[in-house]
Amino acid sequence: MRSTRTSAAPRRGRRTVLAATGLVAALALTATACDGSADSASDKPDATTSQAADGGGKVQIPAELAGKLKEHGIDADRWKDGGWKDWDKDKWLSDAKDFVNPVIEGLWKPDRMQSAKEADKTVTTKDASAGQGVSDPDPAPVRAQAEKTPYHRNAAPVGKVFFDSPEGPAVCSGTVVRDVNHPGKSNLVWTAGHCVHAGGSGGWYRNITFVPAYNDYGKSEAELTNANPTEIAPYGNWWADWASTSNQWIQGGSETGGEGAAYDYAVLHVKPERGSKSLEETVGAALDVDFSAPSAAEARKMGAWGYPAAPPYNGLKMFKCVDVPGRFSLSPTLPTMHRIGCTMTGGSSGGGWFRVRNGKSVLVSNTSIGPADNTWLAGPQLGRDAETLYQNMSKTYGGR
């Protein structure tokens, strides 16, 4: 399988449950539902409008971002006018302190979103055998099931992460997560490290944007031709004004996951292109993150949600898999990862994994890597290192 390298206030109404049921238990994500009277497109933000423009329509790059670009010999005006397309190694910012992602008005239009491709993270037989003796037997494939529509009622916290790479527009999946230091007002999105940074061979990707509940009604490519923008991006586009991933991924991440695979997670702090409410308030839901790194026995079942984009999928619809997790390792010297059977392909990377804890669904991992035959997915255990990254993100950028 391959995995990729990424308003209106919440309205009162009945609560609906997104559930993938097994024979014994159900794994559920809950989202605040909209009542029938609040479902019109006029109640949702215009996904094509940016607050980054002045009265004359010219995009403004904040002074601090322009200053960071200048430090690297990059002209801010040229950057927004297309200079970001220069992927020369001297222009490809790589260190954690170098992340810059100024809003470029109108860049992520619906047709450009549809053109975004998955960027594979495929594990070979040789890679998988490296952890022999640590990994559990390969799980049986679990066929991905389509999520119910509309997504804003059934899986509002789940969405797509769009970004630009040297190969062109690319796509991952992501999840709105709670900000423990700013309850009820989170602007944090959980995804994979390889959805924001190329790892040891490159730097930060560019124009990173999150679209929750993308393609809200699961329309086909033909139907999307004349779709209302709010059906494609019901809660608008949310640009990452900061991203954090692990040092292990930045230094050791590779095309097959590499030594960074067990640390392949990232947190985005986002801001709306339009409006002032937080992401959590706008979407109406966010998931807690579980950093206890539960064992397979403790977790019992895990579910992965995402937007697979590689064949036989096309990235337009949300899918899910639920399975009993096992252990997977690329090396005895690395932490073991979670693994479940799942047929989702590239594009699902970064999508959240959930388990039930104390009666509530919590995020416990994200899709990272998988085999070329698309039979299973593996994701990192979220332990102390992941919690430290999350807390630093929350304390430094949360609440903005």
Automatic annotation (TrEMBL):
InterPro entries linked = Glutamyl_endopeptidase, Peptidase_S1_PA, Peptidase_S1_PA_chymotrypsin, TAT_signal
Residues covered by region (Disordered): 35-59, 113-151
Keyword Signal recorded: yes
The residues forming the signal peptide are: 1-33
Please note every region of biased composition (Basic and acidic residues): 113-124
Q: Keywords, A to Z?
A: Signal
Which protein is depicted?
V8-like Glu-specific endopeptidase
Q: Which organism is it from?
A: Streptomyces violarus
